[in-house]
Amino acid sequence: MIKLTHFGKDVIVKVFLAGIAMTLISIFIDNIIVKFLLTGITIFIWLFTLYFFRDPDRRLPADYKDNQIISPADGKVVVIEDVINKEDNIFKKDEQLIQISIFLSPLNVHVNRNPISGTVKYLKYIKGEYLVAFDHKSSERNERTEIGIENPENGCKILFKQIAGFVARRIVYDLSEDCKVKAGDRFGMIKFGSRIDILIKRDSEIFVKMDQKVTGGETIIAEL
Questions:
Q1: CA–CA gap between residue 43 and residue 45 (Å, rounded)
Q2: 154 Cβ neighbours under 8 A, 6+ residues apart
Q3: How does DSSP assign 105-127, residue by residue?
Q4: What are the structural domain ranges in the chain?
Q5: Dihedrals φ, ψ of 36, to 5°?
Q6: What is the domain class of 68-223 according to CATH?
Q7: How far apart are CA 196 and CA 16, in angstroms?
Q8: Looking at per-residue confidence, does 137 or 118 come out higher?
Q9: 65-91, pLDDT tens digit by residue?
Q10: To 10 degrees, what angle do helices 32-52 and 9-27 make?
């Protein structure tokens, strides 16, 4: 049985009700082709919705260390580059960082997971545009949530962004400033296509490559 995320319950209910409405309408249509077409569309939308909001259980690697970054999402690595931090957040303004970006297609699991353990020290929601998620400009112009986590035990810190794409119009997160989080635990999702940017210090060791597919809660992205 498919496990579904609670972050998608509102959409699942709406799609289910819409499907029932389409089914009732098809009952009163005499054209057999139109009737089967509506029924087929309804079944496809139901199945796709259940598939999209699936939430499989994941386990951290057995050799995981607390200074390593776990992938916050399923998807493909589309950016690995040096960047300059443009504002004060968990890092200093103009600090040199490494950015790793993961693109999520509509077919990927969209539940997001904490990349490290620690305390949320920075949290900011920005209402922006809806460029396609693989456009580099989406990092600075799209609707997004910026989250900074610091581990007081080892001093490691990370900034990552949930970025809405052209189709995605809803960012969900269950975090607040000063709350404690654990690496690999679920914290939210971006509905229907999206991107996640990860920003870390330049002296970090990167374990992924461009175009590599990663698994949220399981793939080790880097070591701080």
A1: 6
A2: 66, 67, 224
A3: -TTS--EEE-SS-EEEEEEEEE-
A4: 6-52, 68-223
A5: -70, -35
A6: mainly beta
A7: 29
A8: 118
A9: 999 999 999 999 999 999 999 888 999
A10: 170
Active-site annotation, residues:
194
pLDDT by residue (tens digit) across 83-120? 999 888 999 999 999 999 999 988 899 999 999 999 99
pTM of the full predicted structure?
A: 0.87
What is the Cα–Cα distance from 196 to 78, expressed in whole angstroms? 10
168: pLDDT strictly greater than 60: no
Sign of CA dihedral 126, 128, 130, 133: negative
Between CA 153 and CA 29 the distance in angstroms is 66
Q: What's the CA gap between 213 and 78, in Å, rounded? A: 10
Average pLDDT over residues 168-197: 88
Q: Which positions ≥6 away from 10 have C-beta within 8 Å?
A: none
